[in-house]
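Section 3.1 - Work completed
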Amino acid sequence: MHDGQLVLEDRLAVALISASVPEADGMPVRRLPSPGTVNALFRIGDGLVARFPLVSTDLAEVRAEAERMTEFAEISPVPAPRPVRVLEASAEYPSAWMVASWVDGETAEGLSDARYPLLAGDLARLIVALRSEPLRGRAFDGTGRGGELTDHDDWVEECFDRSGHLLDVDAGRAMWARLRSIPHPGVETMSHRDLTPPNLIVSREGRLTGVLDTGSFGPVDPSLDLVAAWHLLDAEDRAVLRSGVGSDDAEWRRGAAWALQQAMGLGWYYERTNPAMARLGLRTMGRLLAAEELRG
């Protein structure tokens, strides 16, 4: 799915964990099926998980990720993984990797199209908590989503060019043209940066009970975490989230623009290699194109 993607066989992962992680002594290790595109995951017993990057990552970067995960876990209103060990690259696996605590539960990928007002409120409280964390001199690093919407014009257009067989690209282009020009607010807040269904643990009662993949926690356009509304919620529940966060019209529309940018990159890109991610993108685009609050 990525250029230069690493291949990790199960028996090698087990050997690396056995040799490097004393906490894993005697515990069963098994690969976790995951639609994620960043790490190969191996559960260790009941309480730990090993995260092996699918693209070679140096030790300093994994250590920095661990620091961000710790900061996130300390302020999150729901459980989030905490780093246990950071391991160096080796001849057997040419990337640094990490062992973290396991957060139990089912991710939001399996949610139906029912109403989730309690989840909407929980997501709002999470976003507010993240925004309250001081920046301490940090600023957007220029990587990925979270800066200027217009920086993504070329990518979004490429996605439209490749998606004509999947959705109404004329309607999508018209929506992007309306949303992309909404100006950046000129301030940044701390953000998870990828509040998508695979990263959110939800109970059977529709409550948020955990957050995963927190290692990118950092400062961005405050609207970025609002993508969760479009990935998960219908119009009435989106209104609950919006009210809980206190988003004005400009912020809400910028959040929709970030959701569009992300969703358009999922459908065609993962159509054959990761169908679950492709379906997520197309469902989100369906919500965006049908949204009354984005018309005009």
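Second construct:
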Amino acid sequence: MRLDEYARHDAIGLMELLRRREVCARELQRCALDAAARLNPKLNFLSGCSDEQPSWLEDAPFSGLPFLVKEGNECAGHPATMGSRLGANLKAKQDGELMRRVKRTGVAIIGATTAPEFGLYPVTESALHGATRNPWQVHHSPGGSSGGGAAAVAAGVVPVAQGSDGGGSIRGPAHCTGLFGLKPTRGRTPTSSPGLFGFTHLHVLSRTVRDSAAFLDLLQGPHAGGRFWVPRPERSHLAEVEREPGRLRIGLCRASPLETPLAPECGAAMDQVARLLKTLGHDVEDASPQVDWHGLFDSFLVAWTHALPRAIATIGAMSGRAAGPDTLEPMTLKFAERARTLTIDELLQAEAVFQAARLAVDHFFENYDLWVTPAGVQQAPAIGTFDPSRGDEDLQTYAARALRDYAAFTPLLNITGHPAASVPVCHGSNGLPVGTQIVAPLGDEATIFRVSAQLDAVVRWSQRTPPHSVF
């Protein structure tokens, strides 16, 4: 099988070829490894690649499908460095619950993808790995923190890669690289380390809506010790992809909630999406939840930092290294310093702000079926824009830039727990993708899948291919 033939198929399409015995699983894995060998020197998306032929579970829905996991997500034998020199060469000793479910899908894990230090940053740049680059334009980032997985999927190395999202870390990279990236409802999929506030959500990045839906069907469900869970839907998510959404009431956000105006390409994309949704028969009007955005982002910084000292101590104990300037990024040290000064009052005040935001978004969905926003204030940032190795910027300024100038729209949904997806409806005239975020009521991934499939039927985004790829 030629690499361009392999890359044209999504995960479900490759499994159809396997079932018809037109290819074998080892051939698919060879294609993925060949693609990685060809593209990783330029894009730098791998933190580790399996030295041995991967094994997989037979007679499972995705038996033998080549797959990449995000480093630090508890996959036995794969990198557990947390993207940090502090954890260099560490490997996970056991699987977390999500990885156990990933393996039960039958995938063949061929390696792990890069992430920034402790998943803190909106780009995938670190002293340990260097900068991961965007297949559309290599001087730009694929976003973060699931940037390695996004770059690999966008470049055609694998059709699906695992990601995690604590403030936009699936949706941001999907926005930057032209992928479909869903953050499920809080509790839909298991997470071993949800943090005090439960912001982290685990799922996959994919080129097609149906692949995301199929994997959500297999990864969803409560788990022992889990703090959050949601009931299983009546129908499979994959079945929802084929269903018409009906006529929906959609609230549209065309402006950043903070001072920074949308980049022209992002603003034009929202206008285009509004026209498309109206053409498809939906009722669309400008409307957004009544949220105290400034208070929200001040409190988000508390949540962003609160668990870091413990994570640093854990990795340091595992590696036997001391935390300091030789093992941690300058900005990470500033995050950790801020976290150590947090008081109980600050944590309680942050939770009060978050609860008000949850109520505001729930009230919004009493009148609307969906909320549609930009996925980012700007397109994929240039390499170095949010480089955590810079020591010349204070924490507050860095965090404000990251939220105000880039990721203003995504953290709210980690706070509230609502399902949200970055959907690659538009592509900028400058050659970079532009994502649109679609948000639904709690537990209603189904409507996101239906509308996303409806939009894809019009624009055919999976047929767009980046220049640095095997397509």
